[in-house]
Amino acid sequence: MRDRIRILVRVGLGALLVWAAVAKLRDPHAFAQDIANYRILPASLVAPVAATLPGVEIVVGLALVLAAWRRAAAAAAFWLLVLFALAVGAALVRGINIECGCFGATGRPATWWTFARDLGLSAAALFVFATSPERPVAPLSSADPT
After folding, report:
1. 96 Cβ neighbours under 8 A, 6+ residues apart
2. Helix (H, G, I), strand (E, B) or coil at 69
3. Run of H or E including 48
4. What are the sequence ranges of the domains in the chain?
5. Integer Rg of the chain from CA
6. Which pLDDT band holds residue 137 (cuts at 50, 70, 90)?
7. What is the pLDDT of residues 78-94, one digit of tens each?
8. DSSP track, 71-94
9. Contact 47, 35 (CB under 8 A)
């Protein structure tokens, strides 16, 4: 049963990361503005981060979905989601009213629910990391159900 739960969590988390990345790519200028609104990065880093982050999310998400480098992908997802939670939390503590930017330009503000969601998703990534076998397995291998 734990294997099935891990597969469901791994694939769901991977699909969510890919979906979020694709949404960001639909309007890269709005995504860059969302990043700038957090007031964490210097202006010179906003465009490179906005251009790079969706690609990282796609690679990590696909690695999770396809079970390629499961532990490394889960670790990367964990740190991405912790970073996202910290950014949202920092903005909220400083009283900055911003759009999350999590799934592209949605018009939805970042809230403490956004912060909690990111922490919950990071816990899911940690679960996948902690319960995945350490030995490498070929993606979608019939020899290993995870």
Report:
1. 37, 38, 39
2. coil
3. helix 43-65
4. 2-131
5. 16
6. low
7. 999 999 999 999 999 99
8. HHHHHHHHHHHHHHHHHHHHHHHT
9. no
